[in-house]
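Figure 6 in text form: structure in, sequence out.
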């Protein structure tokens, strides 16, 4: 079984096998304890997990407002 979680350091969505205790984030390199991580979703196969991650990323990009940097003149 696989779980989809957020990295507590960088906030990226990552997939991990429930057979492991920790997962190293592929984005920032931090080790995430799977037993204390907040689970976003669960799946039985990797293809299903990848589809869930893509859906979560699409939702996240739609929900986040567009922001612009403010420059001083």
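Output sequence:
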């Amino acid at each position: 079984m696989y779980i989809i979680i957020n990295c507590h350091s960088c906030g990226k969505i990552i997939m991990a096998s429930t057979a492991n205790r920790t997962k190293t984030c592929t984005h920032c390199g931090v080790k995430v304890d799977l037993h204390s991580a907040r689970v976003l979703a669960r799946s039985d196969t990797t293809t299903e997990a990848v589809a869930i991650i893509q859906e979560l990323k699409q939702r996240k990009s739609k929900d986040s407002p567009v922001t612009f940097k403010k420059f001083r003149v």
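Caption detail: Residues 2-63 form a domain with the Rubredoxin-like fold (CATH 3.90.820).
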